[in-house]
Amino acid sequence: MIELRPHQTRAIEMLRHSLKAGNKRPVLAAPTGFGKTIVGAWLALSAVAKGKRVLFVCDRIKLVQQSLEAFDSFGIEVGVIQGKHERTRYSAPVQIASIQTLAKKPKMPVFDVCIIDECQVLYKAHIAMMNAYNNIPFIGLSATPYSKGLGKYFDDLLVPITTRQLQDQTYLAKAKYYGGAKVNLSGVKTKALPTGGTDYDPKSLASNIEKDDKLTGDIIKNWQRYGEGRQTIAFTPSIKHSKELVRQFNEAGIAAEHIDGYMDQEERQMLYKAHDNGEFMILSCSQLLNTGYDAPKVSCMIDCYPTKSLITWVQRVGRVIRSHKDKDYAVILDHAGNTSKLGFAEDVVPDELDDGDKRYNEKSLTKDKDKEPNVKECPQCHGHFVGLRCACGYEIPVSQQLESTDEMLVELTASQKRNRKTSMEEKSQFYSELMAYASIKGYSQGWAAHKYRDRFSVWPNKVKAHTISNGISDEVLKFITSQNIRNAKRRAA
Question: What's the CATH class of domain 6-162?
Answer without folding.
Answer: alpha beta
